[in-house]
Amino acid sequence: MRIAHVSYGTVYGGAPELIRADTRGFQDLGCTVSWFDIAPYFHEQPLADYLHDALHGVRPRVIPGGQTELRQRYANPDADLGPLAAKITADRPDVVVLHDPVGLVLAPALAGVAQLVWRSHIGDQAWNEWTISASQILRPALAHCASAVVHLPEYVWPEAPCPFLVSAPGIDVDSTKNRQLAPAETAQLASLLTTGLVEAGWGTDRAGRDSSERDRVFLDHGTGFLPSDTARYAVVVARWDPLKGHRLALDAFVAAAAVDPDLHLVFVGPNLHSSSRGVFHDVRNGILTAIGELPTALRQRAHLWSAVDISTDVHQAGVNLIRSRAALVMQPSLREGFGLSLTESMYRGRTSIATAVGGHRHQISPGVNGLSCAADAESLAGALTLALEQSPQLGGPARASVTERFTAQHSARRQLEHFQRAAG
C-alpha cells in the first residue's frame, strides 16, 4: 500500500515526530511512504492557531473572522493549494493521511484522488463551546474523508460525518532519541550536561574534524549548565507552548526545592528565531525572567536550554542522554493530545511525573509505572515531593508499558488494518 502523509512542517512539533515513527512502522509492514509539507502553501497562521487552541478546549488567542467565513475555508478547494494537490496526485497514493486541522484543509482538493484519512493529534477530555466551534468549521472538509484517526475515545466526534478509529500513537524505539546509547556514545555526549558542547563530528559527521573542536548543541541563555555530569536533576522536555505548563514545573520545583537541596531543574526546548511564533518567545522569555527573579541559591539550580538545531542526529542523541541521566522527568501540560514526550521518557526507564490530562491519563497507572497529579502547581509540587522523599523505582514498569502498547509497530499495524478494511 502507498501511503502519503500531509502535515504543517516536517521538523518541529508532535505531528512530525509521530509521522517519523509511523513511517518506520509502515515500512516494516511493507508499505511505501511519502511525506508532503503544506507549510509553503498555507499562509493563514491565525486560523491554524485558532483551531489548535479550540480543539484543545481553550479559548483561542486569536479569532480570525466569523464562523461562516471559516467554514467556507474548509468547504471548497483552495487555489493556493492546487500545486500541492497536484504533487500528491502524481505520487499515486492509495491513502492520504491529512494531519491536524491544517492538513485537513486539503480534503476538498483531493476528493476522489485516494482514500482520505484525517489524523487528529489534538482533542480535549470534554466537549465545550470551543471544541464544538472547531468541529463545525472542520466538518465540511471531514465529509470528504473515508475516516478519521484520533488518539483517545474522548476525541471521537458526536454525529461525525465519517467513521472514527481510536488508535494511540507510538514511538520509534530504534531512533537515536529513544534507543539505548552505547557506552562510548554516552561518554562523548556527557559534556553536553556541563557545557552544552560535544566533541566535533558526532556519529558519522566526524570525518575531517579536529578532535579538539567542539560543536554547540544547546544554548543556556545565561542560566548555566549543570555543575557536573553526575548532578541530580529533574527535566522538562517540551516546545515553548503555553499549554505545556512550564511555569507549573518551575513553581513546583521552587515549592519542593528544600526536600532535595542538590536537585536541579532543567527545561529543554527548541531554539527560537525571529520567524518563530510570538507566543513561543513569550513562554520561553517568561521562564527566563522567572528564573532570574529567584533567590540566588535557587536560581543556580534552575536552567533553560535551547537546542541549536533540533533536526540533527546529535540533538536527538543529546535529548536521549538528558532523559536517561535524569533523576525525574516532569510533563506538566495543561492540555495534551497524547503526550509522546512522556512516552519517550517512560521508554528511557525514568520515573515520570505527569499531569492527568489528555493521553497522559492513558499512559500512567499512578504508583505503578509513574506518578500522576492535577494540572496545578500545588499538586505537581506534592507529586515531586513524594518522588523525592520516597524515590519510587517506576522506570522499569514504565519502559515495559511502552513496549507493550505504544510503539510505532503497534500504531502502524492498527492503522494499516483500518485502511485495508476501508478499501474493501
TrEMBL record:
Pfam families membership: Glycos_transf_1 (PF00534), TreT_GT1 (PF21269)
Domain Trehalose synthase N-terminal: 10-156
InterPro entries, per the entry: Glyco_trans_1, TreT_GT1
Keyword annotations: Glycosyltransferase, Transferase
Domain Glycosyl transferase family: residue ranges: 229-391
GO MF: glycosyltransferase activity
Alphabetical list of PANTHER family matching this protein: D-INOSITOL 3-PHOSPHATE GLYCOSYLTRANSFERASE, GLYCOSYLTRANSFERASE
Protein name as it appears in the record: Trehalose synthase
